[in-house]
Design goal:
The complex is a heterodimer of chains A (311) and B (142).
Chain A (H helix, E strand, L loop, with lengths): L1 H27 L11 H34 L9 H36 L3 E2 L8 E4 L5 E4 L5 E5 H6 L2 H16 L2 H10 L6 H19 L3 H15 L11 E3 L7 H9 L13 H34 L1
Parallel strand pairs in A: 2-4
Antiparallel strand pairs in A: 1-2, 3-4, 3-5
Helix pairs in contact in A: 1-2, 1-3, 2-7, 2-10, 5-7, 5-8, 8-9
Chain B lengths: L1 H11 L5 H13 L4 H6 L7 H13 L3 E6 L2 E6 L3 H17 L6 H38 L1
Antiparallel strand pairs in B: 1-2
Helix pairs in contact in B: 1-5, 2-4
The chains are: A mainly alpha (311), B mainly alpha (142).
Chain lengths: 311, 142
């Protein structure tokens, strides 16, 4: 009974906190301000972090505070009314099940469509090291797969683009691959919440710009990618792309904006990535020390809050 | 902008005259104003009473809000230019879709117009890219 109550209380706390934080993100993400020289990659990373922050924060608080506070502070012999935590806990489990079903359904659909696309596909030498296939009936240029991503190029794309344009266009998809954008899409699917669509679109738009930046090494590359974008935008889309794929054209963000951005490309935009990792370890250490210092009190307070919530 | 007003007028059945358009644009640029303030800008050269009547008419057509300020009124637009454009577009498209005998026909006109617009836009972008390429080649040769 103790374990059952603990699970129900933890789940309830998790979902309530997740909903509150998600509401805050839905209302406040538009006020995110980026510095003028912030790269598209940085903007994409921040938008993604904003989107998943409710899930991460709720999971962190539940696992680090709520569960231990229940185990350490809750008297085992007490006989409390189980009705409220049990109903809320079952509600939470149903929500989890819904989220899981959503992800599995989207994964199944993506796998089915990609398997169809890969039927009769041939390996394509696009001047890059990543697995690239020429296929029929696919969108012009797509990155498919979450764990083992592959680039699919349609017959029409191969016919339309010259070798340099094709190389840099495939390079765009490789930039998505390096950023693990399909995996990020899957994570977003795991954390549904109404009203998040605009934030997800903003992230996807920034991810496209970041992939453009990642593919371009020189102004010639920038012009080749701009030409590829224009040529492929003239093709009619085959059908709506499945969930866990990234396409060069047809996503959010205007072709015009991307082409104009590529035309304005200069060497200064190819800055080396700043190594921010050296700040991560000290920050992590500070967080750990602070948590340890106030952990006892925090557990007591958390236990009070959970007691109040389930009564 | 004129096309927006024409479209809006035709779409909603609320016709806006040239002076009404001029006054509304002046209010958009100022945010809010009294008759005297609009006349002080020198962009509107009509008589005081003409402008006052125009503002009153726009208020009655629900384009403006007003609050009394002494013996006069201070007017402010109810919608931004962008919002009005949106209303005009939505209203116009709704009328277009409801106008044909075959319901799919107006939609096909719309798709055709959008496709033509897209193609033109892509042509323009291609020209820009080619121009940039030529500039680069020229710079390399020099």
């Amino acid at each position: 009974m103790f374990v059952l109550r603990g699970i129900a209380v933890s789940l309830t706390f998790f979902v309530l906190l997740y909903c509150v934080l998600s509401l805050m993100v839905v209302a406040g993400w538009r006020y995110l301000r980026f510095s003028r020289n912030a790269s598209a990659q940085r903007q994409a990373n921040l938008l993604f972090l904003a989107r998943v922050s409710p899930l991460l924060a709720s999971a962190f608080v539940t696992l680090v505070l709520v569960v231990p506070s229940f185990v350490l502070r809750e008297p085992r012999s007490i006989h409390e009314d189980m009705a409220v935590p049990l109903v809320l806990g079952i509600g939470c489990l149903l929500l989890f099940a819904l989220g899981a079903f959503r992800v599995v359904a989207a994964l199944a659909r993506t796998s089915r469509v990609v398997a169809n696309w890969l039927k009769g596909a041939d390996a394509l030498d696009a001047g890059v090291t990543a697995p690239t296939f020429r296929a029929n009936g696919t969108p012009p240029l797509t990155l498919v797969g979450v764990c083992s991503p592959r680039v699919l190029v349609s017959e029409a794309t191969v016919a339309l683009l010259n070798r340099d344009e094709l190389r840099v266009a495939v390079g765009h998809e490789l930039a998505h691959m390096r950023s693990r954008d399909n995996l990020k899409k899957l994570i977003l699917h795991c954390a549904p919440f109404p009203g998040m669509a605009s934030l997800e679109n903003a992230w996807q738009e920034a991810a496209e710009l970041a992939a453009d930046d990642g593919a371009v090494e020189s102004i010639c590359d920038a012009l080749d990618l701009a030409t590829a974008l224009i040529k492929l935008s003239r093709l009619m889309p085959v059908r709506s792309a499945p969930a866990f794929t990234m396409a060069l054209v047809g996503g959010p963000g205007s072709v015009r904006g991307r082409v104009e951005r590529l035309l304005a490309w200069d060497e200064s935009k190819k800055r080396p990535l700043q190594r921010r990792w050296r700040f991560v370890f000290p920050s992590f250490l500070v967080v750990i020390l602070c948590t340890v210092a106030v952990y006892g009190d925090a557990l007591t307070q958390t236990h009070r809050v959970t007691e109040w919530l389930v009564r | 902008m004129k096309r927006v007003f024409t479209f809006f007028g035709a779409a909603s059945g609320t016709h806006l005259g040239p002076l009404e358009q001029q006054v509304l644009e002046a209010l958009w640029s100022r945010g809010n104003a009294t008759v005297r303030e609009l006349l002080e800008d020198k962009n509107i050269t009509q008589a005081y009473t003409t402008v006052m009547t125009t503002l009153d008419r726009l208020y009655k057509k629900k384009f403006l809000d007003r609050v009394s300020e002494g013996r006069a009124f201070r007017y402010s637009p109810r919608q931004t230019a962008e919002e009005l454009r949106q209303v005009a577009a939505v209203e116009g498209i709704r009328q277009l879709l409801g106008s044909g005998d075959a319901s799919s026909l107006p939609l096909s006109y719309l798709v055709e117009a959008l496709s033509t617009h897209d193609a033109q836009l892509l042509d323009e972008l291609q020209v820009l890219v080619e121009r940039k390429r030529r500039e680069l080649k020229k710079a390399e040769q020099e």
